[in-house]
Specification:
By secondary structure, the chain is α+β, with helices and mostly antiparallel strands. The chain has 3 helices and 11 strands. Strands 3, 5, 6, 10 and 11 form a 5-stranded mixed sheet that branches. It has a two-stranded parallel ribbon with strand order 1-2. Strands 4-7 form a two-stranded antiparallel sheet. A hairpin with a 2-residue loop joins β10 and β11. The N terminus is likely disordered.
Length: 238
Amino acid sequence: MFDQLIESKKSAAYGGAFGGGAFSISLHAVVISLAVYATMHAKEVVKQVRHTFDVTLQTQEKKAEPPPPKQELATVVAPPKGFQTLSMPTNIPINIPPPSSNSSFNAADFSGVGVEGGVARGITQTGPAVRTDQPYLESVVEERPELISHPPVHYPEILKQAGIEGHVVVEAIIDTTGHAEHGSIRILSSTNPLFEQPSKEVVAASVYRPGKISGRSVRVRVQVPLNFTVVKGGLGGQ
């Protein structure tokens, strides 16, 4: 009976050790499987995040406003061959100032020969005196475009409530009818992106007196500053 009890204990110990080993192997297998699944899942999450980021970046690049095509500017030609008109003074000065050595007088410019407004040594015009295919800079025309009217300036509501003010400079080409050419309107500088679209809309809907050279209307590239200010009882604009 003593021998039988010892044999029974050995069998029980052997069986317990084997059962515990099998349980440990199963547990490790489950843990490894979970780790592999988590790693694979993490890779999929990273791929999805990268895909979303790429799509968002491409969308933003598509929404970005392309720069306007580079356009050459016309230059003012030399004065035409012609003459100056001598006008009679309406107010005759009592005290005649001494002659100035800096001023020059050419009697040939008052001969009446050629085009009025020209000079004796000017060039003979063989074609149009002004360019119609290219715009002029505002600084070189004889008469700059002058604003006649513009619509009310739309102040972004979110900036209005926050009391945020700003300044925008818009560039545009004013055509010979006194309107801004649609494709030429662009933002040169802005203190807040939300001010940019209202500024473009104001310039696009404004009416100007066209710029002129030798009495003819010409296309002129101008810069229009716009100030957005919150004032008592209303809004400030152009």
